[in-house]
Amino acid sequence: MDYLDHLEAEAIYILREVAAQFENPALLFSGGKDSITLVHLAKKAFRPGKFPFPLVHIDTGHNFPETIQFRDHLIEELGEKLIVGHVQDSIDEGKAVEQKGKNASRNALQTITLLDTIEKYGFDACIGGARRDEEKARAKERIFSVRDEFGQWDPKRQRPELWNIFNGKIHKGENVRVFPISNWTELDVWNYIKRENIALPSIYFSHEREVVFRNGQWMASAPFLNIDDEDIVDYKSVRFRTVGDMTCTAAVDSEATALDDIIAEIKASTVSERGARMDDKVSEAAMEERKKQGYF
Q: What is the pLDDT at residue 26?
């Protein structure tokens, strides 16, 4: 077995532990490479049977069109249940307030919609594709990460996970966020995608598109980006290392059209993939503060 075999076996074991320990789990699906990898691992863990959980997507309404198209195609191919929570519904119901200004984004509003979706469907565990190498706050997470009855995370209230023994016992109203690929790196994910020949949305590969230069980075042009005279609009060859809300996800200059090219780029990069997420740069503890409030 090589190291990818070990990582795969651990992730499959964790997914099966979720199915065994929880009554009503869900797999949170963003349409990004990490959640797509989780779906592939779930197929290995549970096929030829159906998944013991639905897929849940929290839709900001400002997603990349390529991601939504890929999501719908994948769900049709899988034949699994998809639940979509809409941030626009939270705004319309007065539970979330749309940000104003040039750099307004709906990314943080996902937390409200996610917590409402968890409560509505009574999920006691939510599986996600977060990895410890992405960001400092995520490096603090356990694989089974307990949230209180308000959906909030306390970094000081975490359980030991010795010898891959995971404790899923929770009180009524609490839920657990589960991270099966927590021990993977970005490079591990790409090497696994290459080995397993996993399909991805086209935005991960270099392509020509209209972009806007803002805050030192290239953003995909979109109707809701609030473009003004200070922004530089250009047409460039770019790709995206991470997939999120279009208003906070920056592109990188790239000519990488194949997996080997992307892997070579990542090996040479000195910046984390989260370096292309504007919302992580609000403060040093931006991600940790959002996670404490219930962000995934």
A: 97
